[in-house]
Design goal:
The chain has about 400 residues and is α/β, with parallel strands linked by helices. The chain is built from eleven helices and 18 strands. Among the domains are: about 170 residues, Acetylglutamate kinase-like (Carbamate kinase); about 70 residues, Alpha-Beta Plaits (2-Layer Sandwich), CATH 3.30.70.260. The structure holds aspartic acid and magnesium ion (MG).
Length: about 400
Amino acid sequence: MDLIVQKFGGTSVADTTCIQRVAGRIVRETQRGRSVVVVVSAQGHTTDQLLQKAREITPRPPQRELDMLLATGEQMSVSLLAMAVDALGVPVISLTGAQGGIFTDEHHTKAKIKAIRTERIAQELRNGRVVIVAGFQGVSSEQDITTLGRGGSDTTAVALAASLGASVCEIYTDVEGVYTADPRLEPRARKLLEVGYGEMLEMASLGALVLQPRAVEVAAAYGVPIHVRSSFSEAEGTWVKEDASMEKEILVTGVTADRDCAKIVLVDVPDDTSVLHQVFSRLASVGVNVDMIVQTSKQQHTTDLTFTVTEDEVEQALDVIKDIPSAEDAAIVYDIDVAKVSIVGAGMMSNPGVAASMFGCLNEANIPIQLVSTSEIKVSCLIPRNRVRDAVQACHRQFQLDQLGTSE
Ligand code: ASP
Ligand code: MG
């Protein structure tokens, strides 16, 4: 029998009406003769509220206890949704991550799925039930509850789709798909019909919040087609899959913005590779993820070392680099009023001049570029945060993204 996995995000199950709408959708799917496994996020802003509660108790809650707390959000939504499906007369059961066989490593709040033991889910499906699994959570080999990082329900859904051999993983959200840009920043943004895994991974990592990057990685590794669509409409959404053939000729598929960055500069450090090594190994040792890095050599054997981290990791970063021997004379400055605007497209791989054209349009709009980084299929520029909207619109215009996709 055809099996599909449907994942509903927090806004899709925000209140009773939403839960009943989702239940109706699930039931319609079963009436088409399909087996359905459902993954749900916590309702609305539940996860943020739980985090807030924890912070009221202590600024640094133990990560294990945080996972214990956060997992309750999804446990609430799976049970409520199961009640709603049951009320429509369809056999259903809700399962926690552990009951669903989601085994992870021990890395609390950022755990990775190690294995999925699907026996229980398979058994329930054979018994003719809809199975509703709590997203975002799993269990470690120590039997402790773990969570998969913010947005982790996407990864639960894709990983389940991969291990159950589902024909598709549908990700239901409050927008109709993946857009050429965030429609809140660029009203002319268009919904894309298809996006390749590689492009989607870049877009998700560069600020498009519609999918957790890890979920895209898992989908690409196992060839799971993802259909991103709205739970509030019947419209076809965006297909994320191998080789988005329709857009092949296109240089740039989307423009993304990420405000969650901060720039740190070590001014006048000795021009010596060991300093570079020390800075980044100290950052790595405390788990700070460094994004863009630029080193500028000056006269007198000194250099300026500039890099970016996420805003919430600035303090931790400053803390570990402040007393590096041989760099203690360096001044350390930081700036959080920055943002990263990126263009993404598999087509730019074989076409020179795309970066030039991005710099050109930003220059024309008088937007200063502070740092640049590139990969085969993206160009990112660090710019002042208050110019994000202008930059997104300038790039959208430059690469004629309003001609892509569909206006539905
Ligand atoms: N509830 C979790 C979060 O808000 C997981 C998810 O929604 O995917 O991050
Ligand atoms: Mg999400």
